[in-house]
Amino acid sequence: MPTDTTRNAPDIAVILPCYNEGLTIGDVVRRFRETLPGARIYVFDNNSNDNTAIMARLAGATVVRERRQGKGHVVRRMFADIDADIYIMADGDGTYAPEDAPQLVTTLLSERVDMAVGIRSGVKDDAGRTGHAFGNRVFNGIYRYLFGADFSDILSGYRAFTRRFVKSFPAISHGFEIETEMSVHASQLKLPVAEVELDYGRRPEGSTSKLSTFRDGLKILMMFARLMKETQPFRFFTVIAGMLLAASIFFMIPPVYEYLTTGLVDRVPTWVGAIGILILSLLTFVTGLILDSVAAGRVEQMRMAYLAQPPLRGESRASGTPATGRRGAPKGVSTATKTKRKKKAESAA
């Protein structure tokens, strides 16, 4: 018979996106099962051509196949399909220690945040990761400049989330830039977040990284530009308008100088082109103003979607008050039902 502690424990789902991780996924699943005995473990196989799915099933995980290639597609499917109070996302390559998962969950509950990120303390220990470590520093610096200093490791794949975060996250990315989108989503809505420094392990012999330093780095840079356009359109288009204005002034200088010295303008095409660029600069600036209002409305909608989810971070369970179900409905008899029963009792008396 379940005890009160077991009955009141949050429902935890471990979600593992995988592509050709047959060498490591079995051990990762077993260690998560030992560390979090009550958690449900899901492995989302992204078209692996090795024995990833078989090894995951043998280790006790529920395997789901996602045919659209890319980590972003997998995360979108995971967040849409899985219902839980707390979600733990990690990689199937064994670089993130399952034994650290309780620390992420404890941080999520004790600090009452919506996302706890495991900072990778050993990412530079492996000489093979030198390029990745340098890119990580660059991307984190760009992120702090564009979106704020909420995170020090935006590319970490070891994270714990509340249901509130998961069900309000739009997930529009396709590949490894999905972690960047998660961080921007939290910064944009000013969600409570926390970071926990964890060891970052090495891949075992024979296991290779799916991350391409240059290709995926370029995708992340493009994601930065896209998210800046979507979340800070006034800033984005003002930069473009400023560059166009500078170009317009540059082309205007020769005709204006010629007119002031000779009273004539022989470079008519240059003057017309400069005026055209100036008009385009003004239109770009106005576009930024209009889209800034649209972006503000989009943030309000996302905020309402976030607030529509119950704030289940363990406080109601810890205090002994009635727990909230996954769908937001209180478990047990509702307040309205109790009121109706009370009125019937009074009328009968």
TrEMBL record:
Source organism, top-level taxon: Bacteria
Molecular function (Gene Ontology), one example: transferase activity
Pfam families with a match to the protein in the record: Glycos_transf_2 (PF00535)
Record carries keyword Membrane: yes
Xref: InterPro entries: Glyco_trans_2-like, Glycosyltransferase_2, Nucleotide-diphossugar_trans
Transmembrane intervals: 236-257, 269-294
Region listing for Disordered, in residue ranges: 313-349
SUPFAM superfamilies: Nucleotide-diphospho-sugar transferases (SSF53448)
Domain Glycosyltransferase 2-like: 14-166
Keyword annotations from UniProtKB, A to Z: Membrane, Transferase, Transmembrane, Transmembrane helix
Biased composition (Basic residues): 338-349
Protein name: Glycosyltransferase
Source organism of this protein record: Oricola thermophila
